[in-house]
Amino acid sequence: MRTLKLSENTKQNLLNDLLKRSPNNYGQYEDIVADIISQVRTKGDEAVFSYTRQFDHCEISAENLLVTREEIEEAFESVGSEFLEVMKRSAENIRRFHEKQLRSSWFDPRPDGTILGMKHLPIATAGVYVPGGKAAYPSSVLMNVIPARVAGVERIIMTTPPGADGKVNPGTLAAAAVAGVNEIYKVGGAQAIAAMAFGTESIPKVDKITGPGNIFVALAKKACFGYVSIDSIAGPSEILVIADETANPRYVAADLLSQAEHDELASAILITTSEELAEKVSEEIDSFLTTLSRRETIQKSLDNYGYILIAQDLDEAVETANEIASEHLEILTKDPFSVMTKIRNAGAIFLGEYSSEPLGDYFAGPNHVLPTNGTAKFFSPLNVDDFMKKTSIISYSRDALEKAHKDIELFAEREGLTAHANSIKVRFE
Where NAD(+) is bound, by residue (predicted)? Predict the structure, then answer.
């Protein structure tokens, strides 16, 4: 990893470098995705089956599109009872955390005859996309489905690509059953997003689509936004560690590598006030690389987007972290809670040397679907509210409206909307 002294110039160059990873730079694939969406929208199942044959080398029809109970039972056997129990414990932690996010409808009646309120209701149907093949992550199934289930969504469907043998990754199926998915369809890629966005003869239209995917999936979600709601356009994974001289360099190195192994575009950044720690972390990284199974991917990630930055003090480190707005932020300092109070922008914050990032990925309970590419400045982790919709409630008595009607009429007239004004005025003729 390259080691640099932190400065305004260094910071700006780093931010520019990280922005190259943005999904907004996928424009060269947009025409391909637009054509897939158009075909699925007009031809329905026929297009879905054709693209599955073309991209997944699998023959799928209306008869075998839907995953059966027998296939789920087979998946349970395949993953084994030990892993199944781990998934159940993880699911319970995720459920408990998200239940604390639930909010009730509220009404505010006043003596003047005014009643205002907000009605909270879950969306009717949620769609979850889950990648297949090597990128199959049961943990993401739990993280996407359980908040929807806690919100009270009645119908949760999942799409995931089949293998050439027509089967779905058993870990994905087992996690879906644990989380409470209603229906699982064997379709992947942009065609799956289009199918959920517009509906086909076999796949229902949903109200919201969540879940990660490749470039084509990301662009399809972007193109379908507005016809359905989406969670976000996810970029490559990233981790930022703020550490001082008290940090364990072996822990820091291990945590940086935990994200670098995701993808050649993944970003791993250490900001430290200690040059000695920086040197030791670099040495530990070199040592770990000789043993880790995904070392080629890790090495490319570190070469492209790995940095060790030397800050003058923790204030400068925090300022830079807030500018980067990383998906995952670890604070390994003498007083991590004090540093945490100064952080404004991060997807998830991990405090102390025993709160390693994979704890959040798999088990603690907070959602691991997080804003990337600096979007933590204005986006939040996936949560129960993402599966809720809110409706305003307004009720005025005649007396309450009479006190306000001239104000409303004046406002409407100043905007040139005389029919608006008249709608109020006729009630007091």
Answer: 129, 191, 214
